[in-house]
Amino acid sequence: MNRELDHIGIAVRDLEHAVYFYTQILDGKLLDQYRSEAKGVESEIAVIEVNDSRIELLLPTNNTTSPIARFIKQKGKGVHHIAYRVDNLTEAIQHLESQGIRTMKETLRTNKHGRRLIYLNPADTEGTIIEYCDYPVT
């Protein structure tokens, strides 16, 4: 099964400052900025490309229910998750389950760009939040 790094999600407290840092200091390019109120997301998201790498800056929009807000309260700002692109998300989930790795089924969704994604249970990943994702065939 092919896996490649897709992006790194970074929890931030000040999206404007973070976008400035990644675009002006690191010479990145702002590809998109949008707000997601989907349950379990509830964030403003800025997608930045630095060279050939993507970063998602994540600002919580609901300090009560956003998992990004909980993350910042517990661990502070910084790297929230690492996302791996797979060829077929459904097959990847089946493969993970056959290996005894649990996924967080309630996080399975399709984002505004058509990317299907799910998070792995951090209890099975040595505490790292890992996202698996795939993209629609165009």
UniProtKB/TrEMBL annotation:
<dbReference type="InterPro" id="IPR017515">
    <property type="entry name" value="MeMalonyl-CoA_epimerase"/>
</dbReference>
<dbReference type="Pfam" id="PF13669">
    <property type="entry name" value="Glyoxalase_4"/>
</dbReference>
<comment type="similarity">
    <text>Belongs to the methylmalonyl-CoA epimerase family.</text>
</comment>
<dbReference type="GO" id="GO:0046872">
    <property type="term" value="F:metal ion binding"/>
</dbReference>
<keyword id="KW-0479">Metal-binding</keyword>
<dbReference type="InterPro" id="IPR037523">
    <property type="entry name" value="VOC_core"/>
</dbReference>
<dbReference type="GO" id="GO:0046491">
    <property type="term" value="P:L-methylmalonyl-CoA metabolic process"/>
</dbReference>
<dbReference type="GO" id="GO:0004493">
    <property type="term" value="F:methylmalonyl-CoA epimerase activity"/>
</dbReference>
<feature type="domain" description="VOC">
    <location>
        <begin position="4"/>
        <end position="135"/>
    </location>
</feature>
<dbReference type="InterPro" id="IPR051785">
    <property type="entry name" value="MMCE/EMCE_epimerase"/>
</dbReference>
<protein>
    <submittedName>
        <fullName>VOC family protein</fullName>
    </submittedName>
</protein>
<dbReference type="InterPro" id="IPR029068">
    <property type="entry name" value="Glyas_Bleomycin-R_OHBP_Dase"/>
</dbReference>
